[in-house]
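On clarity, I found the account of how folds are encoded harder to follow than it need be. Since the whole study asks how a given chain folds, the encoding of that fold should be made plain. For illustration, here is how one protein appears when written out as sequence plus structure tokens:

:::
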Amino acid sequence: RTKIVGKIPKEKHAEYIDRVRYEIGVILNVGLEGYFLVVQDILAWAKNQGWLLGEARGSSAGSLVAYLINITEVDPIKYNLLWTRFYNEGRVQPGKVSLPDIDSDVPVNKRGLIIDYIFQKYGDDKVAHMITLGRNQGRSALKDVLRAKERCSYDEMNKITDNIPDEAKIAGELQEMRELGEDTSIILWALKNNANKLKPWCFIDDKNEFHGDYSKDFQQAIRLEGLKRQTGKHASGIVLSNSPIEEFAPLCHDKSSDKLMVGLEMNESEACGLVKIDILGSMVLDDLMNCVSIINTGDYND
């Protein structure tokens, strides 16, 4: 009521009522009420500490329910934001509920305390970090092959791989290739688009055959692209369960702490019935809190 009554013209109330009824209908139909209440609880606790949180991130700003229960601070109707951009009921498959994705921005120096609260509130056995799996990308795959075979000096290795771009820089082109059913190898992309620069070591002719002193190395590196090579801790994701997580998924030790991590990535964790919550640290919020503290007290916020 505090966000609508006295702030929204009465002639628009019907629009808000229709929207919130629709959203609640979807939430109840697919059983998402628990997810919203958990996110609300975590953010309400952080706000009660006096900490500054993000207004909204990404598509979550399209939910009027999230706005009304203070998960976000952006009125989606005022800014013509779509619920279906946030959550599409058509994604739900029989026997499997597709969870929405509410990313929450918090101050970096308070993130650990918020995560501690989640563990204490919901239980150490029902909360865990999750792993990420590092994968061979174009440049690293080729370096691994060249290094293992001792094919050249480090200087020449860097000279070769400098002509292979990072995945993020050609993400759009790789996506187009994927949609066309083409091979999305970064190395292959480089051989076609940086052909002149890579020709001293490897090139592809009109028949798509590899040539050059390093042709076999390039082909082997292409085969290695995408393979998992190492594990790490997900930068922002926490998973929760209503019963011990070990009943749903394998666990492994976090090398940097004494806590356990779910030994599955995001999609696999959700497929096992675990709920993922994203708590992202934002230095901007730390800076803003420090500005407020300096203005009010003359001291940095601790």
The first helix runs from residue 13 to 30. The chain has a mean pLDDT of 90. The first strand starts at residue 103 and ends at 107.
